[in-house]
Amino acid sequence: MKIFYISGAVIPSRKANSIQVMRMCEAFSQIGHDVTLFSGSGNATDGETDFAGYGVESNFTIIKRLRPGIPIAKSLIYAVDVWRAVSSSRYPDLFYAREPYALAGLCHLGIPFLYEAHSPPVGPRKWIENRIFRSHCFRRLIVISESLRREYVRLYPWLPAKAITVAHDAAQPYRRAGSNDTPVISGQRDGCIQVGYVGHLYRGRGIEVIIQLAKRFPDSDFHVVGGDRKDILRWIASTGSIQNIYFHGFAPPSQCDKYLTSFDVVLAPYQRNVFVSGGKTETSRWMSPLKIFEYMSAGKAIIASDLPVLREVLEHDHNCLLVEPDNIEAWSAAIERLKNAELRMRLGAAAQKQFEREHTWDKRAETVLRPLVQAKGAQECVV
Fold first, then answer.
1. Span 4-16, average pLDDT
2. pLDDT over 90 for what percent of the chain?
3. Same domain for 103 and 215?
4. Considering the domain boundaries, does residue 180 fall inside one?
5. Residues 280, 299 within the same domain
6. Which residue among 43, 154, 300, 349 has the highest number of C-beta atoms inside a 10 angstrom radius?
7. Where is the Glycosyltransferase subfamily 4-like N-terminal domain (predicted)?
8. Hey, how many other C-beta atoms are within 10 angstroms of the C-beta on 238?
9. Tens digit of pLDDT for each residue in 184-218?
10. Cα separation, 260 vs 129, whole angstroms
11. What average pLDDT does range 233-237 have in this prediction?
């Protein structure tokens, strides 16, 4: 099947949405589809550089269009540019979209589409999505959590239940760093537990929890991988004289496994309010964090915040330890428990087994396309 993936992500960028989009395009291609990605243009890098930076196969085409940084106009300008690019191409069998404005401009072409959402609509997006769902070309809404599915049912009660698929996010199978790989973390203290965090340093990600833990456990090393220079400097300034916390800065997706190899324990200390880039969108009720699946893929012992949306994937004392987000005593107790190597191995193995069974990108791609395949083609799949 020929698929045009319509994305609002900028390629390349450091945002999680760009990683998710690149991985999904790779997965669609790996299971046998002809994929073209339409994305915003981050810089003048060539396609091969983009593929290598994200650690994905160059098995799909990327077409970059203008996505200016003008708050109100950028979506409309991008939508027009994508429409022009699509109109000059041989039409696909299916549109798969995460960008509602561009998708709305393509509905009149009569091509079936799937639409993926990662948060409920606000402002004009609610009107746009209403139009999308009422189009005769609409086939299915893909959401990243059960809690987000329930919210869409509340917002659009007329939308048939069978028109919504829950597909949690995913990760690549883990590639353990080998003896020929250059170590990315050096100088680790012998006999010390290595505790890691990989991800952005945005508000609500719990970096303050990691700093408090580093103070309480001077016999363990704490590593923070990710963030831009401004955020890193701000957090370093708050660590004072703490000697056992290390900020490694941004690592491209293709290099993250090398960091995970060095860690004994990994943290996901999300707070009760979690924000994405820009600090305007709060996602704690709907999110499906990529880092959770990357941790599971690596088979590491996970300590995560006990949030309802994370319980859709994580189970306390089975594949992780869940603790109250802002209870430092609970976080400390979890670190203390995971000094036990046997417990770390048990939790990590259970997480990795579940990941391999349910949460690879290939499995996610199969899940979102399954209704079309079962209907023997996009044209025949009606809601």
1. 93
2. 76
3. no
4. no
5. yes
6. 300
7. 20-168
8. 10
9. 676 678 889 999 999 999 889 999 999 999 999 99
10. 38
11. 92
Find the mean pLDDT for residues 14-18.
Answer: 91
**Do residues 342 and 365 share a domain?**
no
In sequence order, what are the beta bridge partners of 225? 198, 249
User: Could you tell me which residues are beta bridge partners of residue 222?
Assistant: 195, 245
Torsion of CA 130, 133, 137, 141, to 10 degrees: 140
The total number of structural domains in the chain stands at 2
Task: Please report, for the domain that includes residue 120, its CATH number.
Answer: 3.40.50.2000
Whether 181 is in a domain gets the answer no
- DSSP assignment of 109-155, as one string? G---EEEEESS---THHHHHHHHHHHSTTEEEEEESSHHHHHHHHHH
Helix (H, G, I), strand (E, B) or coil at 169: coil
Judge if 280 and 136 occupy the same domain: no
Which of 143 and 231 is assigned the larger pLDDT?
143
- Rounded Cα gap, residues 121 and 6, in angstroms: 18
Instruction: Give the CA-trace dihedral at 191, 193, 196, 201, to 10 degrees.
Output: -110
Give dist(CA 335, CA 333) in Å, integer.
5
Residue 354's domain spans which residues? 193-358
pLDDT in tens, 119-154: 999 989 999 999 999 999 999 999 999 999 999 999
